[in-house]
């Protein structure tokens, strides 16, 4: 029998939004391989002399085998498919217009609010979370707050791929403390702008999408809502996933445009270190509530890599997980950074009956881990 505790809060609304443009593996590889051929031709003498390694081409088969990703939605693919540019074309907007990342957040927020039967005026806390922000200030969360007509206060939160679970935990805690009555978590992940599209091992990883959750006191939750039973966070220093972009970039002209200002990782090292860390994190969270893994109906895990998710789920369950137990959405969305586990939850929770337990868990750069134990009302 599970130990019944509660945060006294619940997820009452959720919504997913993504741009219309789909980027397929085959067209991505055509552009990437043309870039490779041009670069190798440019450095042919060095390659022949053995002082430079030739770049390797990519393929749709390689991408699927390495990640499980088949498509992803992107804000723009004209720049991504230009071998000379390999970067999305996203125009700056005038300061009197809503920023693109705030617009992403508002699009998902409207869906989540409608699901909860609320309007922006019912919200008195907006927490905006993302792996990267398009600016430092004013907070994009305040821009979203203004756009939807919310009251109270708002703030941005950065925590790599655990930003979204962390923001949901912060929203729950704000309600528990009495500093907010109803909270909105928005996760506008416009990830394609911070990826190195010229790097073979990661040129296919990211996609753009936005997700939002409404968090309310449990007494306001309708049947079908998800009670937040408990939350847990953990961080452990690692350099294995990194993005060095920041406001100090211009202060060192020698490294201002270095590739380490974009996403980069040591993928095999990440896999080796995160699997035991994440599986232990989830197992200990469940054990604290006298729950066995097979009593959990669904695991909404961080959607970075299909194999990583499968192995973490298998370590937790002691056997391979079915797609019903641990749904995969990254085959269609790509890696949406911190939004992944929340998107998986939003798209794969309504079929479960009342009384079901679910675990939402992220594991990302830092390393940072965030977990929520949920119970359907």
The number of distinct β-strands equals 13
CATH superfamily of the largest domain: Thiolase/Chalcone synthase
- In DSSP terms, counting alpha (H) and pi (I) runs of 4 or more, how many helices? 10
Radius of gyration from the alpha-carbon trace, in angstroms? 21 Å
Helix and strand succession? EEHHHEHEHEHEEEEEHEHHHEE
Structural class: alpha+beta
Strand coverage percent? 15-25%
Principal-axis shape equals globular
Number of separate domains: 3
Based on the structure given, which CATH architecture of the largest domain is correct? 3-Layer(aba) Sandwich
- In the CATH scheme, the class of the largest domain would be Alpha Beta
Structure notes:
- The protein has 377 residues and is α+β, with helices and mostly antiparallel strands.
- It has three domains: 23-74, no CATH class; 100-220, Thiolase/Chalcone synthase (Peroxisomal Thiolase, Chain A, domain 1, 3-Layer(aba) Sandwich), CATH 3.40.47; 225-376, Peroxisomal Thiolase, Chain A, domain 1.
- It is built from ten helices and 13 strands.
- A nine-stranded mixed sheet has the order 5-4-6-7-1-8-13-12-11, with helices on both faces.
- Strand 4 (125-130), helix 5 (140-148) and strand 5 form a beta-alpha-beta unit.
- Helix 4 (100-116) packs across helix 5 and helix 7 runs parallel beside helix 8 (306-317).
- The protein is globular and about 70 Å long.
- The mean pLDDT is 96.
